[in-house]
Amino acid sequence: MNIIVMLIIYFLLGVFVIKLGIDNSRSTQISKEILNELREIKELMIRNKYE
Question: Transmembrane stretches, by residue range (predicted)?
Fold first, then answer.
């Protein structure tokens, strides 16, 4: 009985850890995209300043 309960708990923890990893991966990708957009905006602003 205890082994089954522990297996269920480990399974649920594993699913939770995998979900956290996927969420962190998505947020990291979104952060990289935002930084790239900001770099492009900065470059455009610098170009317009010197024109």
Answer: 6-22
